[in-house]
Amino acid sequence: MKKLGLILVLMIFSIFYVCSIGFAQELKKAPLNPKFVKWLEAKKAGTLELKTEDVHPLGYIPPSFKFPKVSKSLGINLVEAQALPSKFDLRTVNGTTPVRDQGNCGSCWAFATMASLESYLKYKKSQTWNFSEQDLNQYHGFSLPECQGGNAYMSTAYLTRWSGPVKERDVPYPYVSATPGVPVVKHIQKVWFLPDPKNINAIKTAVYNYGAIYIAFYWDSAYYNYTTYAYYCNSTNYANHAVAIVGWDDNFPKENFKTQPPGNGAFIIKNSWGKSWGDSGYFYLSYYDKTLDEAVSFYNAQPTTNYERIYEYDPFGLVNAVGYSNSDTAWGANVFLASSNADLIKAVGFYALVPNTEYTIYIYDNLTNSANPRSGTLKKTVSGKASKPGYVTISVGDVKVTPNKRFSVVIKFRTPNYYYPVPVEERIWFYTDTASCGMKQSFISYDGSSWIDTCAYWGNDPYEDYNNVNVNIKAYAVKATQ
């Protein structure tokens, strides 16, 4: 009888232990951005707001995933903390390109994106470019029709898969049918998503160091002072318009605003409603505006000769993130078939989801088990921290892989205090309808030993939501010299 009792106790303990381990290792997706969920509901109901009361087009839509917020102190520390002038204007230091007009089209997000990228190149590299907003507006690749809105996540997906930028003269505005396949003139390898869009010092420092930044906010003409070109919204409405911050003035009087904010100070904003609007196309946005959202710096552009090929499965870029219960560490991996024309891996790209994301990159060649991305020969290990959240590209030197054989890029992610460390693409109706996955391509693991095939785990049904998951890991390569 005692023996039977002991056996029962051991069985109960074993069941409890297995369940506990299973719970601890439960794979979860990050909750969708609540603003995106509301937008999706309005989209399905046909109640989206596409124009202002004074008939100006809008166009910003919330993304499905939002980078997690961090403390203000960390946000300031993230950008190179420094003494800043009380007033700064990129227009006075040859750091902006001309104001443009989005016309009767919800493409503000495309104009804000190119305003940031063009400003970076002019301000930091003394290069003057006029990039095509229309190519991004038409060929972003997402489910939204042309002129029906977008966001910086969509811009980043388009740019980091090397669909653009292209020259304005090759695909001119306004929104005429673009010719596919025109030359891409820069390779975008980094995009910085500021972790707190209401952190005034962080925004100033980003503008001062890298040029104009993309910012989203809520526009309603009821909050605009047409005499002083000043805007302040004290409501908590969701953002609906994207513009570019090109400077600031700490002493811009609070009395200039239609509704008085708590203090002085305003960002100088480049809009995309033409030069005849506002102060020659510009206006002032209060530091205290309650609707500021999605602050992004497109602060990197390299010659197209840097790499010859991208290995990737995620044309839609960052759509969500996944992780294991109560752990800020997880592994992601992609398995690729090496091409004889791109058999020298030079760099790896991925999304760092929080400041100081820790990563260890492993590259394996000649995989022996198609279900295990670490079953090949380890060719390279690179560790570090990504200080800025956003899309990053990490050099791995020269890693030769075997043509026509499978190789893998494996990354161990640690996102301090954030429990969804692995960035992924997935299929969502009305947003990424055509996202697709393949078996034995993308993998996720809690320990780097036991792997889950994302396509097998979540499925690849083209008529279901929230499946077809791919890990956001890219490999950049060139052809090895003989």
Automatic annotation (TrEMBL):
GO molecular function: cysteine-type peptidase activity
Gene Ontology biological process: proteolysis
Alphabetical list of Gene3D superfamilies matching this protein: Cysteine proteinases (3.90.70.10)
Source organism, top-level taxon: Bacteria
InterPro entries: Lectin-like (IPR040528), Papain-like_cys_pep_sf (IPR038765), Pept_cys_AS (IPR000169), Pept_his_AS (IPR025660), Peptidase_C1A (IPR013128), Peptidase_C1A_C (IPR000668)
Peptidase C1A papain C-terminal domain residues: 84-299
Record PANTHER family: CYSTEINE PROTEASE FAMILY C1-RELATED
The family this protein is said to belong to: Belongs to the peptidase C1 family.
Name this polypeptide is given: Peptidase C1
UniProt lineage: Bacteria, Pseudomonadati, Thermodesulfobacteriota, Thermodesulfobacteria, Thermodesulfobacteriales
